[in-house]
# Entry
Amino acid sequence: MPSQQVFNTKDGAVYTTSNGAPVAEPYAAEKVGPNGPLLLQDFHHIDLLAHFDRERIPERVVHAKGAGAHGYFEVTHDISDLSCAAIFNKVGNKARATVRWSTVGGESGSADTARDPRGFAVKLRTEEGNWDWVFNNTPVFFLRDPAKFPHFIHTQKRDPQTHLKDPDMFWDYLSQNPESMHQVMILFSDRGTPNGYHRQHGYSGHTFKFVKENGEFHYVQIHLRADGGFKTLTNEQAGQLAGSNPDYGIQELFNTIEKGEFPSWTVYVQTMTPEQAEKFRYNVLDLTKVWPHKEFPLRPVGKLVFNENVQNYFAEIEQSAFSPSHVVPGVEPSADPVLQSRLFSYPDTHRHRLGVNYQQLPVNSPIVPIANFQRDGPATFISQGARPNYQSTIQPLTYKKKAYAGVQHEVFLGSAQLDLIEVTELDFEQPRALWSKVFDDGAKERYVQNVAGHLGNVKSAEVKARQLSVFAAVDQGLSDRIAKAIGHPTVQPLKVKSANEARRFRADVGKFPELKAR
Ligand code: HEM
# Structure
């Protein structure tokens, strides 16, 4: 024990300098005399200031505001016919999980109830390494060409001069990129304002591949369905809460878990063989489309439960680093170009946000030992001891040796990439189904009002007219109702090619006869 008088922190620990020396007076700087200048020898004071000056790390460039918890994933159904991932080799297998939910566009202090998609990121710590599910609470996205992502996100960030958000930028983008319409239908529906982070579903959105040891694969989409249902707020409730309690979502989550009411999800997969993908009405690589449940039913896989609040938000949630490229053997990305782009973007931003050794931070570190030839760098915590920097022979995983034999399918994938370029009538079918079949009268009226409340703030008449023409391509009545609500004349639908016309054109130009067959 230290000989001098000591100051105890709340938990009874002796207050120390960062090198572990006890400090008797943490609230006083050392001076030459009672009025004298400060002393350079006062390591405690200098270190305190220097560390304080470096307390902030960059917030996430998107999804900056969020909440999280810990829990587990448990396999409840045998899907070993789909994937050789070790986690699926036995019903009852469990993986410790960490979740982070988030809004997308706002800064880390922005309101939890903003109308925005929600991120739903889960880290599963399996015996074969970490498998991250970096999902959203919507099954589709605004775009299918990743080059558009930074531009689209900038439309929701602050204007460089006014430092204000600008509805003209937002709708200017959407009106010129009508493949966004499916997501716009969901965003301005009741689901655009979920009631808290833990009362909503999650979706992979992208198509992934589940792969067997013999190299055969199925395309899959993963669905996380909240056992308590998807609960929403009205636009008015969300707006009021944004002012009165911007941290509503964080608070609800923390209190719910503290009370022992653990939120849970049932995990399902939709599956499709490569042959089915070639005949599918929509493009399996198209992130703006869903797979109809009747054709591709949900198959149960497991349970996801979050039963543990964090001890330290910064260490366990802010420093968490999720990436769709963190997969395990038996799971692979599809050729969806947006997914392919994300595989790069996340680890890249983690290296910027957390440093090159972000995978070694306790929350990100796998439960299995790391063995590779990566070396050193700032903040290396996990040493690989005397393992050499180079070794001549590495044993490959067996299933990787056997490539899928479907050569024709590779040709199909080439044509499917081309298929993503153009907006056609096909792009309005699923948004139209939401409007005409899923929304009841009340939901329709709320949708019109929610859009009008936002689009009505746009100054440019050109942008308003263009967006109304996109709504008219979904349904003329929908567009007319929005036009009336914002005091704008009615507008004719945007003219687009039929899907077959577009495909015939690309089949000839791209010399992909398979396109015609679809
Ligand atoms: C966060 C990029 C599309 C879900 C992020 C971050 C970046 C990013 C740079 C910040 C990550 C961090 O700082 O840790 C992109 C790009 C996209 C894209 C380039 C498209 C080209 C998507 C899509 C989804 C999604 C389609 C869902 C299906 C998420 C989630 C987070 C996130 C859940 C928050 C992760 C967390 O809580 O740490 N994205 N994103 N993103 N993104 Fe994306």
The pocket of protoporphyrin IX containing FE is lined by residues 60-63, 66, 100, 102, 119-121, 134-136, 141, 146, 149, 205, 320-322, 338, 341-342, 345-346, 349-350, 353 (CB under 6 Å).
